[in-house]
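Query structure, 910 tokens:
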């Protein structure tokens, strides 16, 4: 900093105004770089600390963008930064310094120009801390720039200037170490000479975010910064200064203050990627572009702090030279610098790239590194080479799609790439194309394959010339060596081949009707094995109509049946038979041949009428019948045909007439006015046109019926005229017989069921159950709910256990006694129906011998018998004399349900 005297602010404003007016009149003078003063006089503290700012010098660089570098004559005690601020390099006591004169030099590395200025340093007499602070503040206060509010009554010449007063921006270095607050500028108004004023500033950094960065002394107007600034965060601050009186009245128009944060080199370059990947084809010439690496520096790119230079620090491997690549120091583009890239020797290079700011100045600049991996791409610079000059193989004759030999090659190019994949081509020894050499995709071998049958009798060996190439052509300047061609020797092995018929098939033409044992032709086969002495035997393989036989030794074919052209085995007059020829080789081989016999037609089939059935109305008009003839022969042994009615029976020609329409068709119609409905068999004589024509009498079945107005038979007449065949009649009769048998079986089953039901009613009919009837009418001492015995014992009386016998005086009259009683017979679970009668007789005797049991109790004993009994009515059984004393005739008065019981116990002795 340089000292300023009081009152010089107004003078400075006047000088600036004069300079601006002069500039408008004469233009801007040329800028000359250099220090603002030749000699700077500064006052510094007696004792300083390391890093303490002492003063600053100002250098006009004329827009060089910070390319000027500063140096001082005593770097051990003082340090000068790029912004011209001089700091104490260590703790100092200035009276102990040898000299009070300091030289500062500015150098331009681009133009190699230098500028020098002198600084005369004087110390204050006070050594106390307070004295030091006052002294330093006094020096800074004297050197502090002033910004004066422009007067409202400026000269009229100033009105020619811009409307707003232009305040030069204030430059503040970022990352300043203090001490803070650090004064930047003094704001002053001429109105403050006559009255006290108060100064203030507003804007970002003061009362707007971020706040608390700048502060102003309201009395002195000194604007200070309270903390270090960061250009990368906020590069510029726009403040507005205000001047008011003690009453808060504005005395000056606000002025704008711009504070530029001067960039310091405090950010290292950062690569956008830490690892860069690139490729380069092998064999590339020097100067071939590989890739571009980029780095970013947050510092000001308009200054040297943000200007980066790149260089390659190392290359691995250093083969074939250590400088295979170079990098553009400003763009970061990597190119090849030397020839000799060979993927087979060095497939990949690793480069360490360094980016340095300050235009690559290693002393002042900051740097960073990244890795560039360059992969050498394979090109087809190595042809495939066979591992041997000659390959051998063998194959059996007549075999196809078999591999004869495997051809192996070597290729130094990258595997499984078009430059490594081999393609094989036969260049000689195979004029008929019987071999091919496809490539095995896994092993890259050539597979010599037979694609067409090989005949041992034609050639016993094959010598092939095979050339190997790649899928892509070789690189320019590289030629295929002799090792890319090999010879393949193939031996053919003889096998027993099948005999073959010649010609096959063999066609002969014969007239049909040839009689058995007639010789047709000789069908022989040839044995292709010329070098084997073998015999051939013949046999029949396929003869659908069984018309032929062949001599096993000579192949002579004869007939064993009459040849018929109209046979279903003949298609389009052609009959096919297959024969087998087998040699006696080991193992034997056989071949087949087909004999085709074209049968010439003769007139051996008589014509017949078609259709065979038709219908016509009773009245001749308007219906008529069109008929034709079918003949199995071909023309001229078929049509045209001659139609006529037979002479017998006589009524045929009397009732019918036939008219020829064409050579193949005739029309049949009624000759009389009316013919009764019915079915008529009409004989028609048809004659063909063959040489020695054949005639035949065919019967045409005609249904004569009543017709509607459209000439169609009515439904009723269809039913009347329709005749049933023998099969239909038999089917109807069988159905009727089966239906009658089912009805008969149903009747027999119903009768048997009625019998069983009657037998059941005699024994256990619920309506005839005496006990049930008595309980229903409640006339026998109450129902079953009044009885205290177990009803199940009525069905199983033998299971009743004896109990204490009650006294006679307290037992109910209708209660069954509990003392021992006669044993009743037990019926088995499934008794035979024939034993029912004996069972009932024995039960009756037991009941007669039990004087204490009432009659109805005896009846209840038989209640468990169930259905299906074959016994007759109980009325046929005779009771013993013990029951004859009782009179049961009163049972007839109880109704029809007790009639059977009255018949059993009442009435006469009979």
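Result returned for the query:
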């Amino acid at each position: 900093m340089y000292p300023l005297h009081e009152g010089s602010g107004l003078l400075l404003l006047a000088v600036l105004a004069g300079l601006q007016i002069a500039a408008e009149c004469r233009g801007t003078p040329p800028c000359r770089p250099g220090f603002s003063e030749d000699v700077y006089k500064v006052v510094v503290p007696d004792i300083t600390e390391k890093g303490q700012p002492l003063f600053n010098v100002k250098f006009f660089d004329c827009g060089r963008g910070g390319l000027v570098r500063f140096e001082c004559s005593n770097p051990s005690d003082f340090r000068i930064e790029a912004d011209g601020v001089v700091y104490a390099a260590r703790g100092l006591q200035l009276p102990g310094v040898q000299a009070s004169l300091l030289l500062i030099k500015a150098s331009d590395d681009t133009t190699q120009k230098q500028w020098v200025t002198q600084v005369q340093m004087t110390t204050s007499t006070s050594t106390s801390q307070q004295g030091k602070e006052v002294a330093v503040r006094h020096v800074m206060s004297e050197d502090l720039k002033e910004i004066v509010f422009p007067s409202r009554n400026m000269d009229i010449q100033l009105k020619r200037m811009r409307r707003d007063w232009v305040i030069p921006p204030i430059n503040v270095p970022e990352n300043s170490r203090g001490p803070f607050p650090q004064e930047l500028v003094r704001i002053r108004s001429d109105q403050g000479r006559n009255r006290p004023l108060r100064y203030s500033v507003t804007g970002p950094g003061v009362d707007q975010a971020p706040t608390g960065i700048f502060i102003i002394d309201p009395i002195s107007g000194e604007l200070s910064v309270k903390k270090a600034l960061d250009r990368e965060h906020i590069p510029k601050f726009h403040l507005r200064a205000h001047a008011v009186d003690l009453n808060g009245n504005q005395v000056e128009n606000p002025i704008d203050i711009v504070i530029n944060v001067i960039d310091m080199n405090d950010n290292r370059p950062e690569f956008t990627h830490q690892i860069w990947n690139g490729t380069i084809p092998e064999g590339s010439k020097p100067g071939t572009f590989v890739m571009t690496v980029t780095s970013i520096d947050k510092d000001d790119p308009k200054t040297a702090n943000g200007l980066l230079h790149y260089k390659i620090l190392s290359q691995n491997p250093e083969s074939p030279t250590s400088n295979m690549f170079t990098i553009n120091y400003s763009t970061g583009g990597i190119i090849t610098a030397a020839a000799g890239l060979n993927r087979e020797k060095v497939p990949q290079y690793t480069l360490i790239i360094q980016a340095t700011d300050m235009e690559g100045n290693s002393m002042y600049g900051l740097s960073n590194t990244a890795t560039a991996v360059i992969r050498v791409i394979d090109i087809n610079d190595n042809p495939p080479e066979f591992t041997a000059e000659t390959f051998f193989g063998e194959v059996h004759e007549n075999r196809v799609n078999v591999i004869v030999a495997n051809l192996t090659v070597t290729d130094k190019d990258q595997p499984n790439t078009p430059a490594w994949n081999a393609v094989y081509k036969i260049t000689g020894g195979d004029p008929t194309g019987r071999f091919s050499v496809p490539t095995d995709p896994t092993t890259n071998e050539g597979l010599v394959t037979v694609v067409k049958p090989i005949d041992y009798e034609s050639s016993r060996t094959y010598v092939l010339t095979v050339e190997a190439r790649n899928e892509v052509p070789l690189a320019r300047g590289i030629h295929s060596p002799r090792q890319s061609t090999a010879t393949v020797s193939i031996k053919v092995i003889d096998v027993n081949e099948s005999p073959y018929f010649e010609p096959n098939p063999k066609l002969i033409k014969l007239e049909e009707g040839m009689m058995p044992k007639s010789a047709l032709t000789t069908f022989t086969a040839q044995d292709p094995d010329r070098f084997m002495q073998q015999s051939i035997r013949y046999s029949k393989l396929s003869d659908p109509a069984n018309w032929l036989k062949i001599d096993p030794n000579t192949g002579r074919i004869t007939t064993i049946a009459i040849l018929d052209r109209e046979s279903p085995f003949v298609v389009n007059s052609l009959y096919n038979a297959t024969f087998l020829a087998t040699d006696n080789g080991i193992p034997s081989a056989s071949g087949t041949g087909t004999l085709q016999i074209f049968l010439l037609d003769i007139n051996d089939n008589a014509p017949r009428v078609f259709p065979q059935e038709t219908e016509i109305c009773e009245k001749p008009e308007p219906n008529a019948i069109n008929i034709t003839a079918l003949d199995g022969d071909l023309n001229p042994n078929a049509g045209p045909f001659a139609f006529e009615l037979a002479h017998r029976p006589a009524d045929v020609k009397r009732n019918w007439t036939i008219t020829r329409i064409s050579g193949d068709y005739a029309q049949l119609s009624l000759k009389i006015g009316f013919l009764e409905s019915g079915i008529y068999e009409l004989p028609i004589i048809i004659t063909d046109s063959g040489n020695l024509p054949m005639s035949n009498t065919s019967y045409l079945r005609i249904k004569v019926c009543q017709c509607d107005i459209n000439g169609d038979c009515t439904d009723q007449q269809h039913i009347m005229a329709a005749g049933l065949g023998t099969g239909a009649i038999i089917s109807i009769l069988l159905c009727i017989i089966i239906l009658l048998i089912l009805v008969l079986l149903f009747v027999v089953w119903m009768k048997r069921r009625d019998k069983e039901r009657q037998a059941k009613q005699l024994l256990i009919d619920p309506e005839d159950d005496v006990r049930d009837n008595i309980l229903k009418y409640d006339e026998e001492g109450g129902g079953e709910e009044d009885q205290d015995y177990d009803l199940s014992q009525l069905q199983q009386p033998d299971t009743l256990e004896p109990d204490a016998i009650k006294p006679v005086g307290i037992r109910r009259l209708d209660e069954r006694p509990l003392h021992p009683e006669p044993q009743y017979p037990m019926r088995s679970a499934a008794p035979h129906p024939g034993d029912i009668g004996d069972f009932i007789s024995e039960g009756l005797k037991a009941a007669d011998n039990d004087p204490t049991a009432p009659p109805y109790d005896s009846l209840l004993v038989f209640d468990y018998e169930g259905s299906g009994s074959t016994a007759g009515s109980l009325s046929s059984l005779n009771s013993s004399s013990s029951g004859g004393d009782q009179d049961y005739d009163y049972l007839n008065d109880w109704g029809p349900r007790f009639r059977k019981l009255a018949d059993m116990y009442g009435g006469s002795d009979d």
